[in-house]
Amino acid sequence: MIDNSENKEPVKKSNFIHSQIEKDLQEGKNDGRVHTRFPPEPNGYLHIGHAKSICLNFGIAEKFGGKCNLRFDDTNPSKEEMEYVESIQKDVRWLGFDWEDRMFYASNYFEKLHEFAIKLINEGKAYVDDQDAETISKQKGTPTRPGQESPFRNRTVEENLDLFRRMTLGEFDEGSRVLRAKIDLASPNMHMRDPIIYRIMKAHHHRTGDKWCVYPMYDFAHGQCDYWEGITHSICTLEFEVHRPLYDWFIDQLKDSDYRPRQIEFARLNLTYTIMSKRKLLELVKENYVNGWDDPRMPTISGLRRRGYTPESIRNFSERIGVTKVDGMIDVSLLEYSVREHLNKTAQRVMGVLNPLKVVITNYPENQEEELDAINNPEDESMGTRKVPFSKELYIERDDFMEEPPRKFFRLAPGREVRLRYAYFVTCTDVVKDENGEITELHCTYDPASKGGNSPDGRKVKATLHWVSAKHAVKSEVRLYDRLFNDEDPSGHKDVDFKEFLNPDSLKILPDCYVEPFVKASKPLDHFQFERLGYFSLDYDSKTEKPVFNRTVPLRDSWAKAQQNK
RNA sequence: UGUCCUGUGGUGUAAUUGGCAACACGUCUGACUCUGGAUCAGAAGAGUCCAGGUUCGAGCCCUGGCAGGACAACCA
């Protein structure tokens, strides 16, 4: 293992797939080549689960000096769209991976696939079945009961050839006929019971247009595409495990050398409090439960990006969770830990007040202003310092003041002295309230000798507060996100729809926040730490007059935690 | 009452050819601190699904159970 403790990236772990590849290499398989592929279907946006697969596949290529292709599995035109193929490319690139000149589509192979089907017919290994879906399904039997042969199973090669030709020409209606591989109706594996390999679909395909009236099924396309691309290790998720004998069967019909791709399955990612099904994510988007695929509450790559996650943090997360065949559930807190870890080291610090409470420094000269030095990132000296304006009227966080502070509340209270970060020690002298008894303003005095945050007499103060000068503050909107679902496993309940668990408080918009002027120059997706609060990132919805910040994740907060446990 | 897969602290992953069950997250202490952050130090927490067997020695090998998951779209 490589010692990369310097950059603190998690050490790259090995896993069972790496071991199997090493073994294949030792045995001299496939001329020592390692070639993987990431094969999304363009029927939705990529999510964090895909990120795991992307990191795995591209990571293997990197580790073994091989290659990794991007291949769109576009065999079902009724669900696939160009918008998705574009978003997928963007997301893979953003994650930091490069397929170079190897971007392919299953539809690139439609011609070859069709020829291969004809070859199987000629060899008596495929036949046209005239029955409808329901009949075929019934004949297939059940996992515990063998299937029965179709009455059309023993048609002549000539008849099959003719029928398939006419299916291809569009002479028949959708659903009226299919092409099936002739394998074994009695197989204990349902996928070997004469699987359907071509169906009639008169849909417009996003790439081939109206050229085809028949489209290959997944099982008939995937392995063959792997074969033609020279893939050596075809890595997919556990649910395809039972497909493997069929995958191998088609490869056996195709191969003419020692080379053969090998399918290896691993457990897909499950995260607590989130759903990973593209179908369900699409439902949230279509029915407006969220604001699009890139809503920052979505587990999509584009949602995480907009939320303020970094590619590094997602890659580190993938590395940390490992790769196995155990179907488990990862705690989201591990994902959150990964962003905090990265952002702590890289994010520009800034002061911002979410729930403002006005403070007047009564002994500060009326029209005076000054600029104080603030550190941009205490974890990274090279990021330097900046100036923060200070004046008589400030905003502090409402939560940072309590009129009757409980034990262990160290922040501001009547008569108490605290430090304003990088500025002065201040002492609260008066609490101003409105007729309803609501606190509207605080009066404080400051100690001019404590400029910069230290008092010459060495007296200590228990808390440091963040603040913003009222006159210089940039009024901003801040969007606070919480988990989208309030159940650990929203889709794990048999009789309850996952939408029942939608968290009504997953988005809280704070329209009147104040942030220090430094943020004026920022661009969407810039990352900040609002000191003492959390990590925030500028949203695309920002206007120059009014920036909008998304909270990526709050800082760990031992005070809040102690309160919760009460 | 089929086939295939999987069972290791709360969670996720490790443990060369059998050799004192390790690491990360989380949790709890304490130190430090101009972020109640970060950092640092420490602690608790599993005897590896169960039962037999082989062995000086089993998480790992053998036998038999048990539990969970996948498979019966003209989806991928």
TrEMBL record:
A Gene Ontology molecular function term of the record: ATP binding
GO cellular component annotations of the record: cytosol
All copies of domain Glutamyl/glutaminyl-tRNA synthetase class Ib anti-codon binding, residue ranges: 347-447
Pfam (any one): tRNA-synt_1c_C2
Residues given in the record as L-glutamine binding sites: 73, 218
Assembly mode: Monomer.
Catalytic activity: tRNA(Gln) + L-glutamine + ATP = L-glutaminyl-tRNA(Gln) + AMP + diphosphate
InterPro entries in the cross-refs: Gln-tRNA-synth (IPR004514), Gln/Glu-tRNA_Ligase (IPR050132), Gln_tRNA_ligase_bac (IPR022861), Glu/Gln-tRNA-synth (IPR000924), Glu/Gln-tRNA-synth_Ib_cat-dom (IPR020058), Glu/Gln-tRNA-synth_Ib_codon-bd (IPR020059), Glu_tRNA_lig_a-bdl (IPR020061), Rbsml_bL25/Gln-tRNA_synth_N (IPR020056)
Family to which the UniProt record says this protein belongs: Belongs to the class-I aminoacyl-tRNA synthetase family.
Compartments where found: Cytoplasm
Domain tRNA synthetases class I (E and Q) anti-codon binding: 464-539
GN (gene name): glnS
Residues the record lists as binding ATP: 41-43, 47-53, 237, 268-269, 276-278
Record's protein name: Glutamine--tRNA ligase
GO biological process, one term: glutaminyl-tRNA aminoacylation
Glutamyl/glutaminyl-tRNA synthetase class Ib catalytic domain sequence ranges: 34-344
